[in-house]
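From the pipeline queue, job 12 of 40. The input is one protein chain; the requested action is below.

Action: predict structure.
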Amino acid sequence: GGGKGMRMVSTEEELEGAFASAGAEAEAAFGDGSLYLEKAVTPARHVEIQVLCDAEGGILTLGERECSIQRRHQKLVEESPSPALDADAREEMESAVERACAAIGYRNAGTFEFLLGPDGGFHFIEVNCRLQVEHPVSELVTGIDVVREQLRIAAGERLDLTGRAPRRGHAIEIRINAEDPARGFAPAPGTVTHFGPPLGAGVRVDTAIRSGSEIPPYYDSMIAKVIVWDETRPAALARALRALSELEVEGIPTTRELALDVLASPEFRSGEYSTSTLDDLEGRVPSLSFS
């Protein structure tokens, strides 16, 4: 996970060293240094499909989530629907996921992840057989409680709906991490001296943080998720910017300012972005301008 054991190789001369270092990293992280090669898709977009499957063979797809704003292969911003997909491409991806679930007898909530190439072709990465951090994005556009449905499936109940879940509007999720973008996203443990979440219609904050909370250095750096919904992408984007501007986290560095810069960038506003966009913004936005 998180890009561990992965290396990009552009020339034959780089292969041996990259293979050795990737294998060692994978062995240390996962206890298995086995590697495989796959074609590099660049520039790429990271698009995933949320699915629910019950024990009776019922399959419900809840559309896609665009997850291309990343640092070190970790997602920072997610949205649904993806600006990169039209109705035909969306149906093609959801149909592929539906066929895969039927073929393997999948039962659970799950996410099928893909890279979307410049030619519009999609390439399978992996399936996460669990609840994803970004599941609220799908919940807001479908009105389906993914956690509740996952528990119902585990209890042996059937899905009330199969096929394609109805969708409405646009949702954006921003992960707030205790990291310092000015120091290469170094972890920033410490005490949250003040925490003030944004409020208002169409704004959801998932967190356990409050004023006085201690952020230890031992765990994942995410401390909150800000999720917004509105009827259109421009309206959702405006709501996300407002919510982030109202979010108050004092005492530790966070990725809040970076998220504001990303959402305000021409790339994100236009919907024309990729997994390399965050690197491309370095030196162009205040939160990624290092002296």
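Job complete. The first strand starts at residue 45 and ends at 53.
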